[in-house]
Amino acid sequence: MECLDGCKLGARPIDQHIKGFEALGANVNVGQGNITATCNKLVGTNIYMDIVSVGATINVMLAAVLAKGTTVIDNPAKEPHIVDVANFLNTMGADVRGAGTDVIKINGVEKLEGNVTYSVVPDQIEAGTFMLAAVASRGDLIIKNCTTKHLECISAKLLEIGAHVEELDGDTIHVWCDKRPTKANIKTLPYPGFPTDLQPQMGVVLSTAEGTSTINESIWESRFQYTDELNKMGAKIMVQGKTAIFEGTDSLYGAPVCATDLRAGAALIIAGICANGITEVHNLEHIDRGYENIEERFRNIGANIKRVREDDPNKNLVEMSE
Q1: Torsion angle (degrees, nearest 10) of CA 219, 225, 228, 229
Q2: Helices vs strands, H then E, count in the chain
Q3: Would you put residue 100 in left (φ > 0), alpha (ψ -120 to 50) or beta?
Q4: 226, 229, 235, 241: CA torsion to nearest 10
Q5: 176-203 per-position pLDDT tens digit
C-alpha cells in the first residue's frame, strides 16, 4: 500500500473522529498502524466537539446521515466546505440542518440517492492566495468565480494594511495595491477568522510592509517553517514559539528555497515573483497537491515563471525572475 504524506505542520490527533464514531455506536480499535471501526447499526445522539475540527465534523456528518434517529453536533467547524458537504448530502436525500452555525442537526434517513449532479463551492484559499499575491506584488487583479462572502476575513485585513478591495458582485472581487503595505497583527483562527492556510502568503506581504508586524498561529505547531526560506530571500523574520515577528524590508532578492508544505510553497512562489533576480522553488510536489497549473495561472497574470527540470529527473523546480 502506498502512503501519501500530507503537510508536516504538527500533531494531527484523531480523538474527535473516534469520539464521534463511538458516540454513534461504532466500536473503534486502534493498533498496529490500523484503525478499525465496526458496528451493527449507528444510532443518532448528541456529540460535543472538544475542539473545532473540520475533518471530525465532516466524518460525523457522513456517519450520522444514515444513522437511526437524530444526531446533534455541538461546536462543529463552520468552514464553507462544511456547508458544502451538508448541501451535497442534502442533494442526495440527507436531512442536515444548521451547517455553518454553532449546532448541526442531522435527521437520519434510510438511504441516499447516488445519481445527483452537484457543483463544488469555489476554494476560498486559492482565491485568497491570488488576493495576497496582488498585494505583495503591488499588482491589480480581478478574481472571478469566487464566493466573496467567504473572503471577508482576508478582505478586512487587506483594507487594514492599505490595499484596495472591491466586491464587484457575489462571485467577483477586485484587489489592487499601489504602495507599500502598512504593518499588521494577525492571529489565525477557525472560520470565519483569518485562515491558517493563508498565513504564509500573508507572511510574504508583511515581509515587505512598513514597520513591525506579528502573526500568531493558533492552529498548527509548525506553520512557520517557511520563514527560514523567506529569510534566505532577505526577509527579517524572527519566530518565537507560535508567534512570528516581521521587520518589514524594502524588497526581497532571489534565492534557492524549498517548499516545506503546500501553503509555504505558494508563499515562496509569490515571494519569488516579487523578488529581485531569480528564485528557484524546490519540492513542487507539495504545491501541486493544492493548486492546479499554478505556474500557468501566474504566467497568465504577468509573472515570469516557468517549471524546469534539474539533472535528477525526480526533482522539479520553478524559476522566477523580475
Answers
A1: -110
A2: 10, 17
A3: left
A4: 40
A5: 999 999 999 999 999 999 999 999 999 9
Active site residues: 7
- Assess whether pLDDT exceeds 70 at residue 104: yes
CA distance linking residue 255 with residue 275, whole number of Å: 9
Contact 249, 283 (CB under 8 A): no
At position 117, the amino acid (one-letter code) is T
Provide mean pLDDT across the span 72-78: 97
The secondary structure of residue 188, as a DSSP letter, is B
Nearest-angstrom CA–CA distance, 152 and 219: 19
Query: Is residue 148 left, alpha or beta, with left meaning phi > 0 and alpha meaning psi from -120 to 50?
Result: alpha
Residue pair 133/127 in contact by the 8 Å Cβ criterion: no
Q: Cell match 505558494: residue? A: 266
pLDDT the model gives residue 272: 96
pLDDT at 31: 85
Q: What are the helix (H) ranges across the chain?
A: 15-23, 54-64, 80-91, 124-136, 152-160, 199-207, 226-232, 262-274, 284-288, 294-300
Q: What is the DSSP string of 99-137?
A: TTSSEEEEE--S--------PPPP-HHHHHHHHHHHHHT
Handedness of CA 225, 228, 233, 234 (dihedral sign): positive
Average pLDDT over residues 233-255: 96
Q: Which of 7-11, 19-23, 226-230, 237-241 has the lowest mean pLDDT?
A: 7-11
Strand, coil or helix: 306: strand
Q: How long is the chain? A: 322
Q: Is 200:222 a contact under the CB 8 Å cutoff? A: no
Contact 280, 257 (CB under 8 A): yes
Q: DSSP assignment, residue 43?
A: B
Average confidence (pLDDT) over 214-237? 93
Q: Which position has the grid cell 484587489?
A: 175
